[in-house]
């Protein structure tokens, strides 16, 4: 959350600087350019004050922070594959976990215990795809 706030603060400060560029003289000295670059960095207090002044911007920032990244793979397809052909590791191949899919294929889903574990993990939304994103049920 802090990183997102800092990124947004730098973006907003950059936009303010860019908005004032047409008014600036292009014959500025190196010291002036250094001062402009230093002013692009916004501290946390300034950022919070800016958010308090603009409630619409604050709402957008909070909504973006609350949005969670999830896997593009379908939850229902994943759990169905795990239940029906989990012993062959098909559900793991489906979500991009090729290495463990091969292990499941060669060991019969780790003698069935791995399949039971995967079904529980998928059902609770804790199973991840090959990129580490959780596969969750979409509402």
| Secondary structure: number of strands | 0
Structural class: mainly alpha
- Number of helices, counting only DSSP H or I runs of 4 residues or more: 8
Termini Cα gap = 25 Å
Assembly category: single chain
As a percent range, the share of strand residues is under 5%
- Mean pLDDT equals 78
Extract low-pLDDT stretches. 21-29
Helix content: 55-70%
**Cα radius of gyration in angstroms:** 25 Å
Largest pleated sheet: none
Order of helices and strands: HHHHHHHH
Indicate how many domains the architecture comprises. 2
Shape label: elongated
Written overview of the protein:
The protein folds into 2 domains: 2-66, no CATH class; 75-123, no CATH class. Residues 21-29 have low confidence and may be disordered. The radius of gyration is 25 Å and the shape is elongated. It has helices spanning 2-20, 30-39, 44-53, 55-66, 75-85, 90-94, 98-111, 113-123. The chain has 139 residues and is mainly alpha-helical. Helix content is 66%, strand content 0%.
Jot down its keywords:
2 domains, mainly alpha, single chain, 66% helix, 8 helices
Write the layout of secondary structure elements.
Blueprint: H1 2-20, H2 30-39, H3 44-53, H4 55-66, H5 75-85, H6 90-94, H7 98-111, H8 113-123
Provide a brief overview of the structure.
The chain is mainly α.
């Amino acid at each position: 959350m802090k990183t997102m706030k800092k990124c947004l603060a730098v973006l907003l400060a950059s936009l303010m600087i860019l908005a004032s560029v047409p008014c600036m003289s292009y014959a500025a000295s190196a010291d002036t350019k250094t001062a402009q670059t230093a002013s692009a960095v916004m501290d946390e207090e300034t950022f919070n004050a800016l958010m308090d002044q603009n409630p619409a911007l604050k709402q957008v920032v909070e909504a973006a922070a609350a949005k969670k990244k999830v896997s593009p793979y379908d939850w229902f397809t994943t759990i169905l594959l795990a239940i029906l052909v989990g012993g062959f590791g098909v559900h793991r191949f489906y979500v991009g976990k090729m290495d463990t899919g091969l292990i499941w294929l060669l060991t019969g889903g780790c003698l069935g215990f791995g399949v039971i574990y995967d079904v529980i993990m998928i059902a609770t939304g804790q199973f991840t795809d090959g990129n580490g994103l959780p596969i969750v049920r979409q509402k």
